[in-house]
Every structure is written in C-alpha cells, then in structure tokens.
Model the fold of this input.
Amino acid sequence: MPIADGWMNVFRLTDADPVPSPDADLQVVGELFGGSGPEVWLAQTVGDALEAMDQTGTERGLLTVRAQSAGGPAGNDKLLSVEDGLTACRMADERFRLVLHLQDVRSPRDNACLVREHAAIDEIVALGVFPSYLGADLHDRRLYPVYEACIEHGLPVRLNLGIAGPMVPSRHQHPELLDDLLIDFPELTVIGCHMGHPYEALLVRLMIKYPRLYLMTSGYLPKYLDPAVVQFMGSSRGIGRVIFGSDHPGIPLQRALEEARKLPIREDALDKYLGTALCDVLGWA
Done:
C-alpha cells in the first residue's frame, strides 16, 4: 500500500531561491519541536522533500500553498504560492498534492469565490484552515460560505485543532466547537490536524459520532499518541479514520515512520494509517 504524508513543508522550489527569515511565531514553534530549528526548515526545497520521501519509501505528500484574494493581506508569505506549488507538483512527477491555506476572514464572499476558483485545479485537494491564525472560531459564521464552497466542490477541510503552537489564542480551535460545525454541515469532510492535543479522547468520541470527521497525527511523533487514539485506530470503527502526517522537516519523515511502525496495531490498520486513509479521503487514486 502507498505511504502518504498528510503534512509536509516545502518553502523553496530550488536552492537558487532565497531562504525566508523565521518570524517570532515560527521561533516559538521551533522551540517546541527542538531539533534543527526553523532556519533549517525554511531552507527546505522540493528536492530535499523528495530525497526524504525516496529514503523512506513515501510515495505521496501534501504541501501547503497560500490563498490570497485580490487586495487581501499578504498573510503567511513564507508558504509557497499556488503557482510555485503547481511547479513543485510537476517537478515531483505528480507525487505532491496541494492544500490551499486560508489567509484571512475579512471577506466571506471573496473567500468562497477563492475556493471555487481554485477547486478547479486538479492538484488542489483540500482547504487548510488554522482558526487561531485567523483569529476566528472554527465555526465562525464568516467561514460558513467557505465551508459551503468546499462541500459544493468536494474539498475536505484540513482544520487545525487543539492548543496552537504559535503565541495565538487556542480557544478558536477547541474540538468541542466541531459539534456545532458538523451539525450545521453534515456533508463537510473535516481532517482535524496536529492531534487536537490535549483533547484526543474527546476527538475519538466525536469521530464515532460524525462519520466524516478524521484525525491527522501531524506534529506529533506516533510514540506519543494518546492510548485512546491508538485503541480507536485499530478498532472496527476507527480503522481508516486516523491519518499519518509528519510535519517534516519539523519532525523528520524517517523518524515519524519508524515510530509509526512500532504502534501496537494490526497490519491492515497500519496500512490505512500510513497512506490508504489519506488517499481514500482525498480520492487520490
């Protein structure tokens, strides 16, 4: 079965591109992760990511690109542009797909149009929403037109949950807010990412309740997974509902996979976790 990484970071196409400088938020996240630090992360190129994938037998990965409407704020300009993301897909022989990262909530109508415009691009397979970065609750009414556009075009939402790494309020992405969101939008597919820590047990209960809710383990080594998540991902209800994501190079892909293979779950559940589940959710044949 294919190994697919639901969260990889690439900030440059080639070594010829300038290396962005880390801001204060990324410095804080770097302290949380430890390791090589944000300066090294921001130097990551398409070639670097492919090398890590080849070394680990990883066939596919998701990259994040920035969405910016006309006249909108620059937002996270360290992310690849959509155009650079499409170039990265071509450079990698289509081993990458793209997540369109929402930059602001000032104009719900413009954002919905932005989603509809980019949904026509085959390589864009999901919308990324980081509520604490946006300063808006995950069920904020300004996001509802965006969610409607995602349903209309079959785009899952990769949604940050739990305590945020940067110095921004985490209340916007408390998993209990999913209850309202998924009642209002039962057809919306949500991939909760970064584990939703420390609310993993709550998320397991919510996944049992809502069949279109998934959990991605990005940003956390598998050896630190909450026992409730491990038990769920190997159960008949939970197989295929928990998705692998490394957050490479913050957590090196090789290390994340080594730890994943030590999880006490049966082989078919591990196959689902390491790639099949992500491909199934995205329709990535």
Remarks:
- The CA atoms of residues 151 and 187 lie 7 Å apart.
- The longest helix spans residues 267-282.
